[in-house]
Amino acid sequence: MYHILIIEDDTDIRSELKLMLENALYHADSIENFTDVPAQVQALSPDLILLDIQLPGLDGLSLCREIRKTKDTPVIFVTSRSSSMDELNGIMMGGDDYITKPYVTPILLARIAAVLKRSARENAVSDSCILTCRGCRLNLLNSTLTCSGKTAELTKNELRICWNLFSRCGEIVPREDIIDDLWDNQIFIDDNTLSVNITRIRSKLREIGVDDLIETKRGQGYRI
């Protein structure tokens, strides 16, 4: 069940939205104390936020910008401000959609479902592109290796070598397997070039504080 957070200062609209969401089988929460809203969002960790613009204290546009500093939770603005400039500002501040009041319930629910579906698909793609082993994360999308909060950028060859090792975490990966994989991808490297690339990867790992991630098994291959 998706968890949706309502950030709306009008109590009648807040109650109406909550009832609408619950009838649509969503789990709904709402913010009622508008002090330090970003911290409340962080604590509640919703799957989607319905956000008004005209709020006490921090306005919705500024609030969306603050939320975006720490979370990528989808945000749909639900507001009475209907100018094209307001909508543009909402999208530029990180909003995923913009609905003007008075909203039409079936359309709002359809927009919510569409944003949630898109977010779930993007998260699935993101998760499939990250491999984790021994506390280190290999990101295949941006060619980086991250350990203990520090990140090293990898070349195409280095990324492919790391993929071979991470995808078989805990196993000894024969040198021949890695060379064959690089050959299949139209990148020819001989046995010595592989050793040079492994040395470069280890050097980048040392720069981010990791000394023993890649283990050499003499006569066999490498293992992490």
TrEMBL record:
Residues 128-224 bind DNA. Residues 128-224 form the OmpR/PhoB-type domain. Residues 3-116 form the Response regulatory domain. SMART domains: REC, Trans_reg_C. The keyword DNA-binding applies. It comes from the Bacteria. InterPro entries: CheY-like_superfamily (IPR011006), OmpR/PhoB-type_DNA-bd (IPR001867), Sig_transdc_resp-reg_C-effctor (IPR016032), Sig_transdc_resp-reg_receiver (IPR001789), WalR-like (IPR039420), WH-like_DNA-bd_sf (IPR036388). The modification 4-aspartylphosphate is found at D52. The keyword Transcription applies. Keywords: DNA-binding, Phosphoprotein, Transcription, Transcription regulation. May play the central regulatory role in sporulation. It may be an element of the effector pathway responsible for the activation of sporulation genes in response to nutritional stress. Spo0A may act in concert with spo0H (a sigma factor) to control the expression of some genes that are critical to the sporulation process. This is Stage 0 sporulation protein A homolog. It comes from Blautia hominis. The lineage of its organism: Bacteria, Bacillati, Bacillota, Clostridia, Lachnospirales.
